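Minutes, project check-in
Item: structure for the 541-residue chain
Input as provided by the requester:
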Amino acid sequence: MTGAETATTRPGTITAMLAERAEADPDATFLRTADGGLTYAEAQAKAAALAGSLRRAGAGPGTAVALLMHNSLEQVIVWFALARLGAVHVPVNTALVGARLVHVLRIAEPAIVVVDDDVQAPLADVLAELESVRTLIVHRTPGGATASRPAASPAGRLERLDLTDLIEGGDHAPAHRGDDLDDATMLFTSGTTGVSKACVLSHRYLARQGQIHAARFGFRAGDVLYSPFPLFHIDTATLTVVAALSAGATAALGRRFSASRFWDEVRAFDASVFNFMGATLSILWKRDPTPADRDHRVRLAWGVPMPEWRDAWERRFGFPLFQVYGLTDAGVPVYDPIDGTRRTGTCGRVIDPYEVRIAPLAPGPGDEPSPGPGVGEILVRGREPGLTMTRYHGMPEATAETIDEDGWVRTGDLGSLDPDGYLAFHGRRSDSIRRRGENISAYEVEQLVESHPAVLESAAVGVPSELTEEDVKVCVVLKPGAGLTPDRLHRYCRDNAPAFMVPRYIEFVDALPKTPTEKVEKFRLKRQGVTPATWDAERAG
């Protein structure tokens, strides 16, 4: 790697960022997993070599390459090799099977699929339906060869290659010179309430999200940014890996979130920063305190949502929590200020590279009421090109519904802005329950239920009512050893919220169905509806 290469790579791309970092600080650790690590120079060399092999396999500018891989050093190397070629990187949820896997791969139309050998079976089941795929690259993982049957080549159509051979046997490929706003990555929305959509992100989007995130939180060389969430999510891809790259720090990648292993992994990685999402923070908080609660190097954590007990967390664990607001479609336009001027009840303040406004809600069926004074849909627009997604790939109608002619992205979230630019989040517009003329925020019901000390996490959904519209059902996971009963939880809700918010139905469950990014798959809960295990307040008396 030479200075000449740095000069010819595009500014504002992860390819240029890695080239510059490998030259300036080649021996610093860039990536760390439980299986080992890579320096900046090693990552640069492996990405360049793999790019040469992938080019011989048919990858080039605009070629879609799908990845069905767990978090690993190799997955990051594949990503950076594709960026170097100008190919389109498509990381896919490894939990998808059957029709949902076919759906995302048909949208992406990949010519090449890179797959961990221990997750080949779901791919094998659907390969015959994927006409675009012509090359299969298998990553050998420890124990993977015997853990899953290999994906067969339908009618001999597929060429099969080995990823390790491609990395080790590749010739250095020069960086493709294109436009920063060319397509770089497709990240799929979670599909927790509807069909997944592929957000097309530019090279500039990837670079700038990481750069902005590192600057807002003051990341620096010597920091270790730990994420236990998958690389097909913005939190790990751009806000951990690219943010570490921007700061000259280390990105430490866990395999998956585990409450029992979390702090051990934080200590093993020597993490100084981590991110949280969904119920993960609540699950950690509700574990019994131990003398090891401050046995770590963490200096801050960031994520969503922010709990009411933030101050108590900070006293117990010894570091501050910061909230952001963002989504893959629109980037991350809102941050808790790092200087301590956090404002309770808000996600933080709109940052300079973005504009955020609140759009009034159009009256719905039956002239349903507004969710509150000043509350409307959150709209986001970048002040510079590439800070939001380019489009939903293959879905022009969905794109037109989401991005208006002036570049404003409709988030589908409800919020309000105060005069100082602080944003308050009021839940998902599509995640409301219509009950007897009232629009009820599922988010607020969940906050109510989870305020009970015996509740670990919950999910509220609407279920059909004999009075038309819907009734509120809440599925609840209790803290281990808790002796709470449905009727006592119902009384607690009744004592602490208006009657229209109190759930009629309560069902205790061992776990909530979730994506690998810890988002609850509410469509599964709605599909189940009222079951024999569901407690009904009206029948109870």
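Outcome recorded: The radius of gyration is 24 Å.
No further action items on this chain.
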